[in-house]
UniProtKB/TrEMBL annotation:
Pfam families: SpoVAC_SpoVAEB. InterPro entries: Spore_V_AE, SpoVA. The keyword Transmembrane helix applies. It comes from the Bacteria. The chain crosses the membrane at residues 6-23, 85-114. This is Stage V sporulation protein AEB. Keywords: Membrane, Transmembrane, Transmembrane helix. The keyword Hydrolase does not apply.
């Protein structure tokens, strides 16, 4: 069990280090860094490399933003096989809707409970 935690930490931390280096060394804005990581997750999924990474690292691969790109492409391809071109659009929203909804709901609850400073 401990090796699983270790590799989740190493992989997830590695993805975060790459993002931080993109901003610090590459002088990219957070928006550029975010977009690049999402696209890299989609590219890894396109070459069937992200699913083995998830099997290996678990939450270390599913928590970082690269997983969002993976989910978008995975859902789009799955639904495209069933419903054709319209499935590309519906698949992206179907797979990612729960995560986006949770972010909106928890953000709203946080805004109700806490007062921003400034």
């Amino acid at each position: 069990m401990w090796p699983f935690f270790f590799w989740a930490f190493v992989v997830g931390g590695g993805i975060c280090v790459i993002g931080q280096l993109m901003m610090d060394v590459g002088k990219l804005t957070p928006a550029h860094t975010l977009s690049t990581l999402v696209v890299s997750g989609a590219l890894l999924e396109a070459f069937n490399l992200y699913e083995p990474l998830i099997d290996f690292a678990g939450a270390g691969a599913t928590i970082p933003i690269t997983s969002f790109g993976n989910s978008l492409l995975h859902g789009a391809m799955q639904e495209a096989e069933k419903h054709g071109i319209i499935g590309v659009l519906t698949g992206m929203f179907e797979v990612t809707s729960s995560g986006i909804s949770a972010a909106i709901i928890f953000g709203f609850i946080g805004a109700l409970i806490f007062r921003p400073k400034g």
